[in-house]
């Protein structure tokens, strides 16, 4: 069994609370937006087509996700978004 040779203590003040939300969205098309009301600023997002599991490209700005994947019409997606309050 390995032994810990050094322990570094970090101040709690150095951490930012990051939250995540797992969500479903129905009837999503290219250029649609999804607003994450409970988050002030998004730090990342991943969207997937629920019918085949393929990733759906998107962009984020402030607390809004925009679907940028071409040729998407009325698809069902599942997503995860991370951000701060």
Question: Care to describe what's here?
Answer:
By secondary structure, the protein is an all-beta fold. It has one domain. Helix content is 0%, strand content 49%. The chain contains no helices and seven strands. It has strands at residues 19-28, 33-35, 41-49, 55-56, 58-61, 64-67, 75-84. The protein has a four-stranded antiparallel sheet with strand order 1-7-3-4, with no helix packed on it. It is elongated. The protein starts with 18 loop residues before the first strand and ends with a strand. The model has no long low-confidence stretch (mean pLDDT 85).
Q: Top keywords for this entry?
A:
85 residues; mainly beta; 4-stranded antiparallel beta sheet; 7 strands; 49% strand
Proportion of β residues? over 45%
- What is the terminal separation in angstroms? 41 Å
Computed over alpha carbons, the radius of gyration is 17 Å
Q: Output mean pLDDT.
A: 85
The parts where pLDDT drops under 50 for at least 5 residues are none
Largest sheet: 4 strands, antiparallel
Structural class: mainly beta
The overall strand count is 7
The number of domains is 1
Number of helices: 0
- Could you give the order of strands across the largest sheet? 1-7-3-4
Which term fits the overall shape? Answer: elongated
**H/E element order:** EEEEEEE
* Helix fraction by DSSP (H/I, runs of at least 4): under 10%
Short overview:
The chain is mostly beta strands.
């Amino acid at each position: 069994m390995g032994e810990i040779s050094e322990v570094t203590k970090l101040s709690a003040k150095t951490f930012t609370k990051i939250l995540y939300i797992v969500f479903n969205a129905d009837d999503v098309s290219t250029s649609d937006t999804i607003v994450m009301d409970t988050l002030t600023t998004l730090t990342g997002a991943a969207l997937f087509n629920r019918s085949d599991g393929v990733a759906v490209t998107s962009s984020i700005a402030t607390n809004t996700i925009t679907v940028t994947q071409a040729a998407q019409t009325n698809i069902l997606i599942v997503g995860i978004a991370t951000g701060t309050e």
